Amino acid sequence: MLIEIIRVSWRSLRANKMRSFLTMLGIIIGVMAVILSSAIGLGTKAGVTKSVESLGSNVLTIMNGSASSGGVSQGFGSGSSLKVSDVSAIANQDPDVQYVSPVISHNAQVVFESNNTNTPIEGVSAQYQQIKGIKIASGRFFLPQEVTSASNVAVLGSTVAQTLFAGYGNPVGQTFQIQGIPFTVVGVAATQGGNGFNNPDNAIAIPYTTEMNLMTGTSSVNQILVSATSPNTMYQAQSEIESTLRLTHQLSPAEPDDFRILNQTTILTALSSVSQMLTMLLDGISAISLLVGGIGIMNIMLVSVTERTREIGIRKAIGAKKGVILTQFLLESLTLSVAGALIGVIVGGAGAIIAGNVMKDGSLLSIWAAVLGVVFSVAIGIIFGVYPARKAANLKPIDALRFE
Question: What pTM did the predictor assign?
Fold first, then answer.
């Protein structure tokens, strides 16, 4: 009997192929949206983690406090409270700090022969290499004595090296100009990866003393990068730095900090929370899509019951029981939802894999998202198929036979 019910249900769905496909479309889109939203969440989380890890290992970032204009705060980083003397104080007084470097940056036009480009210039110390974990593709990083003597030396990011020295071979040992001032290339960094305005491959590192003396003429620094001695001492190092800076800035106990310390772990946690909220929002939209698909299934099944009223009456008149009719229509509803779910998994899975390859994060297909989409679709098929199936099963044979 079950095989016969399946055969009749399948024949009914095949008789209306276009209608069956359009009914499944809501489920297909819903399941596809669940898988792709999960892929977006995984990709965003991977991107956030990669961006934070690119800051370096065990890194603390110290930013200037906020400046005010007309009584309105300009936000953290807009002030000028951090000085080079703060770097020396942190290096000498805080035992849980391993490396420390100021960062003074600006954009400038750089020229070599007939090539030129506009790129970020970062004035840093020799310890910047250890803090950021920079690997050198050719040459070397500049030395502490070159920082002390404010030498005109530079380390190029991989992208700017390719742009500035295209067609001229190895840049190491070559002399180029920053704002008309000659600099010697002592090294080219290996590709680190990055995007947008925070791309280390498109930056040039020079000694911060040279940056201050020849470029910006400033006595303050944009930020200070600190590497703790280990992941376990990051919070202790943060506490030590806070005490040191409050002392060097001569802040009273009642005064707030005129700086801000960003912990790598804190940044990652905060950004991951934002990513998780985005994923939950997309999952909610996907669930609504599945719900709409379920309503579509119920609507079409009700239409099918109405169209096949005489068929139902004939079957019941020759002995078909209520449970048989109920099972048939419920099975048709379930077939539509399962078929839609499987197509949605195939299309959504392919999209997740393609997105992962484009983002260079590998496959972003979540098996759990696919399973959840299928299970939810089966539940939708049953829930929204029960009412039409019960309506068909409860038809009286004599009324069904009279139906026109």
Answer: 0.60
